[in-house]
Amino acid sequence: MSTMFDGMEIPGRNDECWCGSGRKYKKCHARIDERLQAFFDQGEEVPPHTLLKTPADIEGIKYSAEVNIGVLDGVGELVGPGVTTEEIDRWIYDYCIAHDSVPADLDYEGFPKSVCTSINEVVCHGIPSKEDVLREGDIVNIDMSTIRNGYYSDSSRMYYVGEVSEERKRLCEVTRESVKAGLAAVKPWAHLGDVSAAVNKVATDAGYSVVAEFGGHGIGLEFHEDPFVSFVAAAGTGPILVPGMCFTIEPMVNAGGAAIDMSDPNGWTVRTADGSDTAQWEVQLVVTEEGYELLSW
């Protein structure tokens, strides 16, 4: 039996497809695999089959995402002046447990809480605390990740605390528009860098900067899988987008400079180096033969 570039054995054309769909290989992944091999032979970066999600995987991720989306839909009712991020964390933990899931953040590489709550100048990985009290005019990113039946989902949103300045509203909205531009660039057999460049253009055209050190990632069977999704990469670069690839788009957009400060003694919390505000929205998608399907938002 012959093998492909990543060592996967190629089924016979009338054998059942490797993806578990129950369809014959020739009617399922044969054409996709031929294109994958052709891109590899041309020197392009292509994902191994282990990173391509099967129909069963995608259904499992959607089931997990029901909880993730439910959290982000519901937590907005809790956000307001005087609320602590510790209260938000507790509510999210309880929601997950009540829905047969667990927060992926909790104990991940030592992270002590169930969710990341990043306020104003905090770029990412803000740790919930009873000392962090939300104040009128704040903006806060709540970044939620869920494990349910072994599948991972991940998304985040920005929330306004009471009345927010027009400058902060604009930052949040431009960041959201940059994610939409990234989604519009997701096309099968294009490059991941096309997504990066589309995101970056919206943010920088608005006068903002984009964090280079952190970005999106593959996800589904593990919390963080390949590929790393940069938002400062050029169009036409990076891996080929193949149906079945599942990853996040989550730019971190700063109102000031792109430099970050990672000196917090807790080892997690990242801030803008110049103290400027920052915003992030995150969605999770799977590449399809037509474009993409949004899984978590």
Write a compact overview of the structure shown.
The protein is of the alpha+beta class and 297 residues long. It contains five helices and 15 strands. It has helices spanning 30-41, 55-75, 85-98, 166-184, 192-205, and strands spanning 102-103, 116-119, 122-124, 139-148, 151-160, 209-210, 216-218, 225-229, 246-249, 252-254, 260-261, 270-272, 278-280, 283-287, 292-296.
Strand and helix layout:
Elements: H1 30-41, H2 55-75, H3 85-98, E1 102-103, E2 116-119, E3 122-124, E4 139-148, E5 151-160, H4 166-184, H5 192-205, E6 209-210, E7 216-218, E8 225-229, E9 246-249, E10 252-254, E11 260-261, E12 270-272, E13 278-280, E14 283-287, E15 292-296
Antiparallel strand pairs: 1-4, 2-4, 3-12, 4-5, 6-10, 7-8, 9-14, 10-13, 11-12, 14-15
Q: What does it look like?
A:
- The protein has helices spanning 30-41, 55-75, 85-98, 166-184, 192-205, and strands at residues 102-103, 116-119, 122-124, 139-148, 151-160, 209-210, 216-218, 225-229, 246-249, 252-254, 260-261, 270-272, 278-280, 283-287, 292-296.
- It is of the alpha+beta class and 297 residues long.
- Strand 4 and strand 5 form a beta hairpin.
- Helix 2 crosses helix 3 and helix 4 (166-184) packs antiparallel against helix 5.
- It is globular, with a radius of gyration of 20 Å.
- The termini are far apart.
- The mean pLDDT is 97.
H and E order = HHHEEEEEHHEEEEEEEEEE
Strand content: 15-25%
- How far is the first residue's CA from the last residue's CA? 42 Å
What is the quaternary state of this protein? single chain
Q: Would you report the number of β strands?
A: 15
State the share of residues found in helices, binned by percent.
Answer: 25-40%
Number of helices: 5
- Specify the structural class: alpha+beta
Sketch the major β-sheet. Answer: 4 strands, antiparallel
Q: Which parts are unreliable, with pLDDT below 50 for 5 consecutive residues or more?
A: none
Q: Taking all residues together, what is the mean pLDDT? A: 97
Round the Cα radius of gyration to an integer and report it. Answer: 20 Å
What coarse outline follows from CA principal-axis ratios?
Answer: globular
